[in-house]
Amino acid sequence: xxxxxxxxxxxxxxxxxxxxxxxxxxxxxxxxxxxxxxxxxxxxxxxxxxxxxxxxxxxxxxxxxxxxxxxxxxxxxxxxxxxxxxxxxxxxxxxxxxxxxxxxxxxxxxxxxxxxxxxxxxxxxxxxxxxxxxxxxxxxxxxxxxxxxxxxxxxxxxxxxxxxxxxxxxxxxxxxxxxxxxxxxxxxxxxxxxxxxxxxxxxxxxxxxxxxxxxxxxxxxxxxxxxxxxxxxxxxxxxxxxxxxxxxxxxxxxxxxxxxxxxxxxxxxxxxxxxxxxxxxxxxxxxxxxxxxxxxxxxxxxxxxxxxxxxxxxxxxxxxxxxxxxxxxxxxxxxxxxxxxxxxxxxxxxxxxxxxxxxxxxxxxxxxxxxxxxxxxxxxxxxxxxxxxxxxxxxxxxxxxxxxxxxxxxxxxxxxxxxxxxxxxxxxxxxxxxxxxxxxxxxxxxxxxxxxxxxxxxxxxxxxxx
Length: 466
Ligand SMILES: CC(C)[C@H](C(=O)O)[C@@H](O)C(=O)O
Ligand code: SF4
Description:
Heterodimer of LeuC and LeuD. The chain is of the alpha/beta class.
């Protein structure tokens, strides 16, 4: 029998039509939409007089443009208000489930999908958003699409896709103290570069991955896109089933047993071939941080920024441009650099385990005077749990400001911006120029490292202050 990868099994089960040498026509099980990339898609549908084929397969939430204070009031920013209102109108018109501001399951689209149990193994999931890759943590094929594809999915529940190449990244062994899944993915991207997986769909495997919680797995799949991959996937297992069991949209009763039996087949067959393989050792990974302006420019917190030795021409020029933007010099240690802001949030690390990790770390401590500390839950559900578990109290006593759910300072599309020239150590996934505000300087790290930075006011190895 043909040996298949997990990715191929799911892909092949969703091909509606194969065109020789052309893209496959591919069925989409679930479609998430938000206010940024859906309005034009709906507008075009309307112009063409086409409806939404399966409204029950689409789920909506406003997340990017929303303010994270006073969400119950009218949105002040006109463009943001219009976008959120458009989303509301479109959902109403086409009968699409909307998790609106203030409702029990409002939040970042990639946080609420798993939380509701909409995201399940074996599914194909798309959204007009690159970090749709997050959902791959459940053993689903999930990837970001453009606005014209959003339109296509709304109208036909299908898209046309060429099959990507297959890559497997195996991480084996134990992780050291203070090392989190964010460090694993920052380490991988630093090793293979921000373009290292371009054209591939990545499967993450190995004992270090298997041992991670669902939330930690989501952090890894979330950042697959930051190394150019189309998406990332992790085979479902007991951790996945336990997470999903009882969730609102998870199958129930007999349907659950049937689903689990199928989900258990979603493994890469022994001997199946990948186009490219990487192996890493968990024990080589240490707390990581980025120093430059793409997520591949990462080092261990204890390391120095690379020198330009061996770099030439445009590589050297872009490296220096990046360091100039960051206000850093080649070869200098990153530890001890002064920081102005910390941001805990986003679809990478805005879930309850992340907030727990930060709260446990800062309990009984206080943020440094030079730090503004924002903590933004990924969803209302996360916010609720953080209150119930007493985490909000701990964080507020430590000087953190709790804001309402949304993308917030992950990207400068709403009011939460880092001022020009200021340094922010952030649990999000992108450190591009201007990402957190014009001129803002972003360093990506794990929630634990961010907590340590909040307490000392400078780049710190979390292992130094456990
Ligand atoms: C606004 C949206 C289209 C964008 C994306 O596709 O990822 C955003 O979520 C991001 O993280 O940059
Ligand atoms: S939290 Fe950040 S990365 Fe995630 S969807 Fe929002 S803007 Fe994109």
